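Data card: per-record layout.
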Amino acid sequence: MKKSTRNTVNLVISSFLVIGYIVCSYFFSTMADQLSSLWSSVVRTLILVVFGLLLFYATRVGEGKQVHRFSLAVLLLVVVPSLYVIVTGTVDVMPLHELVAPPTADGLASTQSIVMILAGIALGYAIPYTFLSGYEMKEYGEKDLEAEIEEIEEELLEGGLAEELAETEAEIAAQTEDAAEEAAAEVEADAEKEAVEE
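The structure for this 198-residue chain is written out next.
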């Protein structure tokens, strides 16, 4: 499959995934309205975490192998604070609960505060980013291993065909020379016969 065809197929699949996410998030959001305050907050947070995951994988574009590494900095600076903000906004007895999820006019905690939304997206993005970090950078002049293998195979193939062609040409040249020598010998023999007969 060509690269452009593969990219087109990936774009179509990605668009269907985004449409599926929108439909599912709408379904779960309406379902969350019928649940208790705690479970409603949990469902809405999970929707945002999944959005963060989709955002992570949508921005992972590159060539080469994916770099696998554990980043303690991302874990401590993004994952843990995001998780703390989500738990604080969900559980009423946590400190800073009213700051993270200010009460609405009904007196209930807001599950749609901007801090909770950003914390859910950041958590979804940071969980895989703790273990994956982009793609390997190739140094200048360094070739991709697969491309190098393909070049070597092409060179071997070209070398084998070239050798066969050279051998065939040498055989044809030798046969032509032999045929020319035989023809010259026959002409000389005919000439000698004619000279003897005269």
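Known properties of this structure: The mean pLDDT is 77. The helical segments are 3-33, 37-58, 72-90, 97-100, 114-129, 145-197.

See the next section for split statistics.
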